């Protein structure tokens, strides 16, 4: 049955959506029946794939707020072996509406449970926060992938992120593991890049054998190089593979998809 | 007395801190006695200027939570004519602690009121949210500057941002105006850049004469080109002018400081 992967980082603008969309497309191209769930009220993953809001079709907000709704009614096809559970801006109301409910952290997991047999991989694009939507993703994911940029200041948010993962793995989701870090918009020329990556490698290797949820996590290869084509394709509603299949961005996300596929069934 | 400028955008990673720091430094170099207020619990502006957390000195959190505290006790000098009201990560508690208080939106303004006579310009680096900290900034600012990137998806957040500005100008801060938009990490080569900028220009010019808070706002020149030096200098605790004074980033922020100075006293 499907392995669920949460793409999360509370820091904004680091590459979660670009990675969720192009990694999902990359996995689909490798033969994986893939579902991409847009869990961000900004609805950028849905926009990125050219999905228009549609009042005649439920979206992820409706699925979360009405557990009796068949979640497959909210699924849209976006290409061969790639489906999307799309978001609309009404999702902005979800966190405050879910907050008083007893099953507020398990609504997403329950919906995925009804869909999982159709897919090999489920990817969740999280919003830039550690609120209830991201908690729903962490409560049901098998693994977490952390997109980030190799900048000096990026290191400062990682501790808090991992605390949240640890809290969830210590309570509602004991199986939760961090698969690794994806370096996005990577610039080998920047003076601090090598030091930041070395810091991340040191931190992760020192976790080996500790039993922490990031024990065994890696900085995944390859890093995704900064490539203008990746910033351009959302405005055409396309993945990098449709827009510029020969570009470095396509090469890197294809290789990342292989790395991820190797690790997807590890827990 | 000092003009107060809020650097705000609820979207993460768009260039607020890079702009707040280097614009403040640019204004200081033009002779303006400048105060930079770090209003983000991530404390990136403070880190950017090499300011270490110091348990022997109050920070912006203490100033907000204790109105009887003299705010100048929390000021640190960061260079000629550049002072900083630094943040520490304890600021993360401020929003929930301020929430029940009657004067929760005026605490920052009251503190600035006690300091304003020392300065010509006060710049506020806002967190990536429209929560109570950003509201405090909008409640007391004379003008708002919106850093953003000329990407297709960036247009989608602007509406919500302007709604919030309008709500504040319609209630607690009738003088509030949007000075304009600063284009950060600008890449003239990207296919969508020109269209995004044209969209922004159209939107702002159609506001002329409507009396909206962004009536008269412009996309400010120059755009700040993507320049690796701007991403490197935080790891050395320096502004671009200290780190790489000959770099395009220094050139662009110096020119932006002139544009901003021209408009600073317009309301
Ligand atoms: N490798 C890359 N090369 C060039 N541009 C990139 C790359 N990765 C991401 N970007 C651009 O950076 C911006 C932010 O990326 P993205 O939207 O994926 O981040 P995010 O973490 O999902 O943001 P948010 O926190 O708002 O959800 C986008 O304009 C995107 O096109
Ligand atoms: N013109 C530029 N050229 C190159 N890199 C830039 C430029 N402007 C900003 N950056 C880099 O982009 C990243 C995000 O910028 P910054 O921290 O200023 O954004 P922010 O809006 O303050 O983010 P947050 O929402 O987290 O507060 C940083 O690593 C910064 O160094
Ligand atoms: Mg996103
Ligand atoms: Mg910032």
Summarize the structure.
Chain A is an alpha/beta fold and 267 residues long. Chain A is built from eleven helices and eight strands. Chain A has an eight-stranded mixed sheet, with helices on both faces.
What are the low-pLDDT stretches of chain A, counting only 5+ consecutive residues below 50?
none
How much of the sequence lies in strands of chain A comes to: 5-15%
Q: What coarse outline of chain A follows from CA principal-axis ratios? A: globular
**Biggest sheet descriptor of chain A:** 8 strands, mixed
* Whole-angstrom Rg of chain A: 17 Å
Number of strands of chain A: 8
- Give the oligomer, counting copies of the same chain as homo and different chains as hetero: homodimer
Helix and strand element order of chain A: EHEHHEEHHEHEHEHEHHH
List keywords for this structure.
binds magnesium ion; 267 residues; alpha/beta; 8 strands; binds adenosine-5'-triphosphate; globular; homodimer
Question: What does this entry look like structurally?
Answer:
The structure is a homodimer. Chain A is of the alpha/beta class and about 270 residues long. The first copy, chain A, is built from eleven helices and eight strands. Chain A has helices at about 15-30, 45-50, 60-65, 95-100, 105-115, 130-140, 155-170, 195-205, 230, 240-245, 250-265; strands spanning about 5, 35-40, 75-80, 80-85, 120-125, 145-150, 175-185, 220. An eight-stranded mixed sheet of chain A has the order 3-4-2-5-1-6-7-8, sandwiched between helices. In chain A, strand 6 (about 145-150), helix 7 (about 155-170) and strand 7 form a beta-alpha-beta unit. In chain A, helix 5 (about 105-115) packs across helix 6. The first copy, chain A, is globular. The interface between A and B is medium-sized, with 27 and 27 residues. The complex binds adenosine-5'-triphosphate (2 copies) and magnesium ion (2 copies). One magnesium ion binds near residues 44 and 125 of chain B.
């Amino acid at each position: 049955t499907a392995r669920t992967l949460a793409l999360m980082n509370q820091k904004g603008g680091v590459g979660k959506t670009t990675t969720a969309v192009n990694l999902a497309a990359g996995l689909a191209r490798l033969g994986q029946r893939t579902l991409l769930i847009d869990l961000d009220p900004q609805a950028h993953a849905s926009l990125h794939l050219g999905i228009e809001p549609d009042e005649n079709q439920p979206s992820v907000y409706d699925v979360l707020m009405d557990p009796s709704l068949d979640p497959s009614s909210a699924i849209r096809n976006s290409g061969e072996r790639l489906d999307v559970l799309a978001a609309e801006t009404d999702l902005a109301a979800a966190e405050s509406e879910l907050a008083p409910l007893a099953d507020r952290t398990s609504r997403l997991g329950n919906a995925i449970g009804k869909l999982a047999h159709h897919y090999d991989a489920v990817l969740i694009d999280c919003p830039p926060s550690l609120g209830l939507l991201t908690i729903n993703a962490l409560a049901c994911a098998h693994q977490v992938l952390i997109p980030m940029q190799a900048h000096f200041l990026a290191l400062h948010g990682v501790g808090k992120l991992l605390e949240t993962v640890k809290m969830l793995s210590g309570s509602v989701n004991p199986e939760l593991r961090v698969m690794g870090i994806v370096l996005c918009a990577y610039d080998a020329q920047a003076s601090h890049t090598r030091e930041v990556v070395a810091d991340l490698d040191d931190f992760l290797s020192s976790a080996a054998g500790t039993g922490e949820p990031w024990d065994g996590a890696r900085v995944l290869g390859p890093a995704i190089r900064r490539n203008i084509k990746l910033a351009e394709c959302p405005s055409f509603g396309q993945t990098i593979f449709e827009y510029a299949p020969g570009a470095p961005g396509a090469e890197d996300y294809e290789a990342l998809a292989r790395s991820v596929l190797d690790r997807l069934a590890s827990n």
